[in-house]
Design goal:
The chain is mainly α.
């Protein structure tokens, strides 16, 4: 109704050219009561399909990146475990070596005291001999006789 009123008012005016322009600008019945062309629908589906594919691609990329990060973290953890195991092995070896050294020292200390009494007896004997050794001939004879009598008692 509005367009017909505009068209009639322009026709009644003295200038006919502007009224023709207004009448052609008004949508006709067919344009008002029909659906938009299918081509635009295809374009909208194509756009939404492209958007879906883009989102899907982005999600797949994110999943790949997450998997790569997880694999890298796992590799780092495995390397860390290997390093820790090597360190533990080295510590165990060092402890074993230290234990062996302690045992060797204990054994050597145990053997030394057994050797010391023999050495001490030898040293005491030499000291005793030095102390007892007489300077005169008569004293030597007396010591020889004393030593002979002591040997008899020991047997």
């Amino acid at each position: 109704m509005f367009w017909t009123a505009v068209a009639s008012s322009t026709i009644s005016s003295s200038n006919t050219e502007p009224s023709a322009a207004l009448a052609s600008a008004a949508p006709n019945y067919h344009q008002l009561h029909t659906k938009p062309p299918l081509r635009s629908l295809k374009n909208s589906w194509q756009i939404s399909n492209a958007a879906f594919k883009t989102r899907l691609h982005q999600q797949q990329q994110e999943q790949k990146e997450q998997k790569q990060q997880q694999q890298e973290q796992k590799q780092q953890q495995d390397q860390q475990k290997e390093i820790e195991q090597k360190q533990q092995q080295q510590q165990q070896q060092q402890q074993q070596q230290q234990q062996q050294q302690r045992e060797a020292q204990i054994i050597s200390h145990q053997e030394k005291p057994q050797q010391k009494p023999e050495e001490e007896k030898e040293q005491q004997g030499s000291v005793a001999k030095k102390k007892i050794a007489p300077k005169s001939e008569s004293a030597r004879k007396m010591f020889k006789a004393l030593a002979a009598s002591c040997k008899c008692k020991k047997k």
